[in-house]
Amino acid sequence: MKHAKRKWALMSSALLLAMTVGCSSSSSGSGTDSGSTPKDTGNEPAPSKDNGDKGTTETAKKTITITYRDDGTGEKVPLYKWIKDVASQYPNKDVEIKPTPIQASEGDYFAKIALALKSKDTAPDIVTEDTFMLNSDASAGFLEPLDERLKGWGDWTNGSFIEAMKKGVTASDGKVYGVPYNTDSRGLWYNKDIFKKVGLPEDWQPKSWDEVLAAARTIKEKAGKDVVPIWMNLGKATGEATSMQTYEMLLYGTGERLYDDASGKWITKSQGINDALTFIETIAKEKLGPPLSKVLNGQAGNTATREYLPKGKLAISLDGSWIQGNYLDNGTAPWPEYKDVLGFAPMPTSKGQAPGSITLAGGWALSIPANAQHKDEAWDFIQFALNKENTEKLVIASGNITVRADVAKDPEYTKMPFNEISTEYLKNAEFRPAQDKYPEVSTQIQTMVESVASGTSAADAAKKYAQDVTRIVGQDKTLEK
Amino acid sequence: MGGLSVSTPHIKRKSYTWLYFLLPSIAIMLLFFIYPILLTFFYSFTNLALTGEAAKQLKFIGFDNYIRMFQDPTVRISIWNTLVFLIGSAVIGQQVLGFLIALLMKHKSKVFRRIIGTVVLAGWVTPEIVCALCLYSFFGDEGTLNAIISFFGISEVTWLFTVPMLTVIVGNIWHGTAFSMLVFQAALDDVPNEIEEAAVVDGASRLQILFRITIPYIKETITTNMMLVTLQTLGVFGLIYAMTGGGPGTSTTTLPIFMYNQAFVNFQLGYGTAISLLLLLIGIILSLFYIRSLKE
């Protein structure tokens, strides 16, 4: 009897033990403890778990891991194919190049790499950084400054890289934290077939916002209700695409900016903000845009480029130069006719004032994390991977614009249908503020745009934006115009 | 008797055997539960961030996060949404539906009970994220529900966009009702048949039996279940995040979603932890309320 009771007691305390473990792990999962487990959250992508092990055995090859974003298409991601291809030709056979993608939405990718870069156990040797996050990650001390190494690289110093593009990888401390491999411009993609049908010019060059709206109204009137006149990303779910492709393209087109470089302050109130929001309001009110249930969705960008445009269900799309990458034979939505059907017009300034058209430029870079295990080997590989030949392969496969002047002149590159004009738009290119508060301000922009798109008045949305930005950057860092 | 019995006075004084048994679980509670909470509490007073200048240097910023929280209109919206979601899906939805199912199943044949039980349980055993995807495809623009109603000639509705809160509430009811059903089944089985039979003999109607005998008899179970379901629902994240992402706008942004956005989209971990403590506070207040009503 006694024996049985003790056994019972032991068992119940063991059970209790198991339960507490269960409870505590689930409670930390539900968020009571979001701060203390960076390693846990990083272990799913596990960029370089086996990295350390391999480094310790002398005979084994060193593994250089490269982390990039996988949008869920796996081996179809242009970067994956490119890394495999470049690695197979890499002359140094002592290192093994290993792609270690992070499968995530665009927004989650930045959180996931920030977590991975924090620790030596999870940091990859090379990471692809969106240039707008580069400054934040550099300020956080996650990235290795490359200035010393760049001095010894001929391609960097002899003008092969377009000088303006170096600005995008320079953080606010003046140091360079990455080697850019692509950039992009933005403009108005339009379907010439639809334009022809409704009597609009096939060689469309709108001179002001009014002309864009006029074209959209004509399409709404004449093209039938299955055709969406104009598509812009309008939701929070599309993240940075909403801020950059929609709002900033409009705001910068009014001549106004987000951030005043001279005074170092964020502009929270200006006529430009009102004009940009009024444009969105007009589109929402007159129902010139896509159905809200489609556009306020994380998949909105893909819906527009992979479904609506090719099917002739969308007339005008304010989007990036890279969307043609989808339509290539090896792309996610092959559409060989796109060369003839699509046109790419520059986005006009609000009233056609100088410089006449506007584009924002972004782009991606290869960086070396401060916590990387094999920095020298990583640097050697970057120099090889981003030489003229290899960058060219990448920008062609992904439909991006090159950051190298020598590639820009290459016939192989210029024969891609829209590359020449996309590159030309870059001459009026503006960059997003290289401020580490930008990503946070950007989410307020998305909130503001989404609220206007779903019915809030432009004035109310602008007022809320001013309050939110003031709270984020502090009263002394704001400016009203 | 072994050393387990604490109630015997002369053993209590000198034997601490019970403590040895509890020690491992206390240690684990401290390490995995109390410590993270304290740490969260600490971080909520800092500018802890995922990236940017603040990620390099942790700074103590006093009550800034809390002040910001009280000034932030989205926090108010999130609290409201959390309460609507809680009352709609847990307190009313899961409880009432779970109770009704349990009640209707009482005294039914074993086969019937088993079939219905399995069907309801299916929603519960399905992992949250699978559930969310099923419901997303059910309510989606080209989803099952629209296919059904358009078959009957009713024009399609963009459910996730027009009535987003309703869809996540229905989702959570579908996912969680089985738990309440099981709890109430057990409780209803405990109600002695004799009492009910006696009431029938006295001429009580079925409704009278339900409200005068059955419900008062299982009152404690109702309160306990209410508390469990409330706490479960307060923390629901995956279901809402996958179905609507907290949108459109802020219409389904509950506190967990808002906290996630602040911590991992805006990279403000410090602010995120402050919000998580607000959530904890709401949980504690509601639990105290339930425990109190249990005592009465």
UniProtKB/TrEMBL annotation, chain A:
PROSITE patterns reported for this sequence: PROKAR_LIPOPROTEIN
Going by the entry's taxonomy, the superkingdom of the source organism is recorded as: Bacteria
Q: Which UniProt keywords apply?
A: Signal
Which segments carry the region annotation Disordered? 23-58
Q: Which InterPro entries match?
A: Bact_solute-bd_prot1 (IPR050490), SBP (IPR006059)
Question: Residue ranges under compositional bias (Low complexity)?
Answer: 23-36
The signal peptide stretch is: 1-29
Q: Quote the protein name from its UniProt record.
A: Extracellular solute-binding protein
Q: Which organism is it from?
A: Paenibacillus dendrobii
TrEMBL record, chain B:
Q: Name one GO biological process term.
A: transmembrane transport
Q: What's one Pfam family here?
A: BPD_transp_1
All copies of domain ABC transmembrane type-1, residue ranges: 80-290
Coiled coil location: none
Predominantly, its location class is membrane
Report the InterPro entries cross-referenced here. Answer: MalF_N, MetI-like, MetI-like_sf
Q: Name one GO cellular component term.
A: plasma membrane
- Report the PROSITE patterns cross-referenced here: ABC_TM1
- TM segments? 20-43, 79-103, 115-139, 145-174, 222-243, 263-291
Q: How does it sit in the membrane?
A: Multi-pass membrane protein
Looking up PANTHER family in the UniProt record yields: BLR7065 PROTEIN, SPERMIDINE_PUTRESCINE TRANSPORT SYSTEM PERMEASE PROTEIN
Name the record gives this protein: ABC transporter permease subunit
